[in-house]
Every structure is written in C-alpha cells, then in structure tokens.
Amino acid sequence: DQQVKQNSPSLSVQEGRISILNCDYTNSMFDYFLWYKKYPAEGPTFLISISSIKDKNEDGRFTVFLNKSAKHLSLHIVPSQPGDSAVYFCAVRSYGGSQGNLIFGKGTKLSVKP
Amino acid sequence: DVKVTQSSRYLVKRTGEKVFLECVQDMDHENMFWYRQDPGLGLRLIYFSYDVKMKEKGDIPEGYSVSREKKERFSLILESASTNQTSMYLCASRRAGATEAFFGQGTRLTVV
C-alpha cells in the first residue's frame, strides 16, 4: 500500500500564477517531509523540506505547508515560471531500523505555460 | 558541492547478461541508495546501505544485489538482466542523520 500519495499526475499553470502541488501520507511517525524536482534525463534535485514539528517553511518562491492532522503536505510556487516545468516528487523520511530511508510519491508533472 | 557520479548515462544490455551499475560520491556520506524510476510508479527503493559493507533491502530487491566495499562507492548488480529491468536507475547519498539525499544524474538502462 502506498505510504506517500500524489494524486494528481499532472498540473498545468499559467506563468506568473501560483502552482500548488499536493501530497498525502499515511504514517504519522514520519519526521521529515521533502520536495524534489526532476527534469527529464537528470537526477532529482532537492528543493525544500519541513520538519514534522513545523507547519510552514519558506524559501524564496517555494513554500511548503504541513497539515499533520490531515496528513497532508503541499508545495506552493509563487510566481510560477516556465523553468519550473518539471516532475515534482514528494518524499518522507521514515525512521525504520536503519537511519530512515526516503519514501517517494509517484510524482506530479508541472507544466508552466508562458 | 556534493557530487554523486554514476558511471554511465545510457546502457544497452542483452537479456541474461550480468550488469554492474556504479555510483561514487565525494562527500564522505555514510548512507547510499539505489532507486529505479518508471513512468507512473515514481521512485522505488531497491537497496540502501547505511555504512560500508552494510546493506538493506528496499521495496523491490528481487533480481538485484549490491556491494559497498568502500564508503564512497555503491554498486548495483543485475544478476541476470531481464527486459522488465529496463528503467532509469538513480543513485543517491546522504550524511547519516541528515534529511535530504543527493542524487546522481541517472543511468538509463535498456535490456533487449
């Protein structure tokens, strides 16, 4: 069963508008939540993260919101730019037996149109 | 800057071949990971290693093995390549206790 769900496979947004990418998770014991961005034929690059003890973290145009009661995470990009077009993966750090691996969602493909 | 380098960007192998995918990181990270990425399935963890000679199975270890003889190098081995192992393979490394992992550029493997 999926522990990290990104229910929207794709999202299209006009340049300058807000992009909102969503992620749901199942386990309340996850301690860190991350967003990665991936261009075709490249490895994912880390964007932003948030600890489970916070509800918001901001870095420039990127803000991540965490709603623990709803087990929901979102990434806001404001304003969206064409260069933001990529696949965005939500990930959680899981504390298991060995220092916690990263569990990824299936990704959301964002297209920002000029 | 952290650098994670995968030995090949593109590989084409025949069914039944033994395939080695190599990954090297230069930041003395304890943890290293191998994922595969497939359309509609996201990134799935194959194996990870939290230190030298240590390894643990991820979600999809069948048909794969790994080797970590030195801290900077983590190898993924396809014992007998099959067409369903055609995929993008991604290596990552992370300092022990840290949150984010750093990825290599990926290896696009095609098994024919």
Would you write up a description of this structure?
The complex is a heterodimer of chains A (114) and B (112). Helix content of chain A is 0%, strand content 54%. Chain A has strands spanning 4-5, 10-14, 19-25, 32-38, 45-51, 56-59, 62-67, 72-77, 86-93, 102-104, 108-113. Chain A contains no helices and eleven strands. By secondary structure, chain A is mainly beta. In chain B, strands 2, 4, 5, 6, 9, 10 and 11 form a seven-stranded mixed sheet that branches. In chain B, strand 5 and strand 6 form a beta hairpin. Chain B is globular, with a radius of gyration of 13 Å.
**Could you give the distance between the termini of chain A?**
38 Å
How many separate helices of chain A? 0
Overall 3D form of chain B: globular
Number of H- or I-type helical stretches of chain B: 0
Strand-residue proportion of chain B: over 45%
How do the helices and strands follow one another from N- to C-terminus of chain B? EEEEEEEEEEE
Question: What is the mean predicted local confidence, pLDDT of chain A?
Answer: 92
Largest interface here, residues on each chain? A-B, 25 and 30 residues
Specify the oligomeric state: heterodimer
Task: Supply database-style keywords.
heterodimer; A: about 110 residues; mainly beta; six-stranded mixed sheet; five-stranded antiparallel sheet; about 55% strand; globular; B: about 110 residues; seven-stranded mixed sheet; four-stranded antiparallel sheet; 11 strands
